[in-house]
Amino acid sequence: MRAFEYVVAASSAAARTLAREVDGARFYAGGTTLVDLMKADVERPRRVIDISRLPLAAIEQRGDVVRIGALARNSDVAYDARIVLHFPAVSEALLSGASGQIRNAATIGGNLLQRTRCSYFRETRWRCNKREPGSGCDALDGFNRGHAVLGTSDSCIASYPGDLAVALCALSARVVVEGNDGERTIALDDLYVLPGEHPERETTLGPGELITAVELRAERLHERSHYLKIRDRASFEFALVSVACAVELDGKNIAQARLALGGVGTVPWRAREAEAALTGAPPGEAAFRRAAETALTGARTRAHNAYKVELAQRAIVRALRSVCGTGA
Amino acid sequence: MPTTERPAAPAQPAVQLTLRLNGREATFAVEPDVTLLDLLRERAGLTGSKKGCDRGQCGACTVLVNGRRTLSCLALALAHAGDAITTIEGLAAGSELHPVQAAFVEHDAFQCGFCTPGQILSAVGAIAEGHARTGDEIREAMSGNLCRCGAYPNIVAAIAAVQRAR
Ligand SMILES: Cc1cc2nc3c(=O)[nH]c(=O)nc-3n(C[C@H](O)[C@H](O)[C@H](O)COP(=O)(O)OP(=O)(O)OC[C@H]3O[C@@H](n4cnc5c(N)ncnc54)[C@H](O)[C@@H]3O)c2cc1C
Ligand code: SF4
Ligand code: FES
Ligand code: FES
Questions:
Q1: What is the pTM of this model?
Q2: Residue range A254-265, pLDDT digits in tens
Q3: What residue of A is the nearest CA neighbor of B138?
């Protein structure tokens, strides 16, 4: 690790000021992404601002809105009775991530902002446009079995690694940001940006801006939700492919559907056209398969990740079967 | 490949850090880049917590922070001012082994022993969390602790035995 200055923020406003004062400051919440990448020399903050003890860890329900503080720990959110009841996909996504020890430290805000697991990004001897803008991308013609097939660019094909954000994306979560021009609430979709020519820019957060909470709406649609994660080993592994879905059935048909994918996109991937394909259809293999094909229509594959297209489609069908109750 | 250089931050002098280590208050002079694991091993002389990967991937460095299991290699020591840390050295009550320690001995749940302190503290944490009741739940709850010797079946048996006796 390179030398850095460590400061504890007394308030969220102080944290933002401390962050804007120096170029290359980073917040420390649970530290599980930041310290890992500092050891790899990928993150080189000059100042680390400890926000872990700010009073932003509560989970509160007001009316039908459940607000999860950005500093709530992943394990506390996963087992919270309101989350389990109203947003099962969120609880399942959190519990599928990392390990018990890491979930006890990891926070909701930090989880949303975790960095890609692209091994060329994580090791400084490779060329990586995300780590060093303009240097090139060794993943394009390298070992890209884990890389994205949706939302890629010629500059970067890194997949977004997290689980939570995929579930939140399907359930239309909103992110509360304490920004430099006051507070704003944005759709989770609008937090992340596609790599395009600037993969070093991953979110719409400005320098020193702080995520303070995530908001979810408790409604019937979200109660019937599910997160399915496919990976190389049964536990403690990132997703090759994951699916978050929610459906509301009216009598025989699907009244509303929500679908988002992980592991295949450069950002948490909401599959809106597939949702439209499901709406009004009777739940069953035909509709599920059609939605699955729709969701992967724009896929662009590389040498080692073409398998993800079929894998994602099968995972979508399986997740929809289980959430519609038409078999596992 | 060279990467973008930033001027290094001025090295920050050590600052005083007080925490509760295995029930006793302890104060150290600590620089910002010292992890909780390095503090325990190199400053406090508690080498029971192991450095397996130093990157969050093996669980050998697991300790309890305020009763909750966590990885000491991914935590900055300075972020734990005032916290109560329990390491393997502080788990037994005097000469009486903690029930999980006793079960690991009873069930032969280790070979080389390198992963064992982390396994035991992780098991203590997992039992307290309340989601490690069946064999499958135990395997899932313990998935953050790797064992190169493959003592897994006996580790699961040891934890199941502690659960049955509760
Ligand atoms: C071995 C291992 C396995 C893992 N497996 C998985 C997995 O399977 N699935 C998964 O989803 N994740 C996985 N993770 C990632 C883990 O979930 C994240 O590291 C964790 O959620 C990050 O949260 P944190 O609070 O520790 O973040 P930190 O490391 O503290 O912060 C991460 C980044 O976010 C910034 N930040 C933090 N909080 C805020 C805020 N409130 N506002 C603005 N910026 C902020 C920080 O400055 C930093 O840049 C794994 C991690 C490890 C080490
Ligand atoms: S895929 Fe993206 S993160 Fe990976 S090496 Fe290429 S530019 Fe870097
Ligand atoms: S040493 Fe901390 S997880 Fe391996
Ligand atoms: S007993 Fe040797 S690594 Fe587990």
A1: 0.97
A2: 999 999 999 999
A3: A100
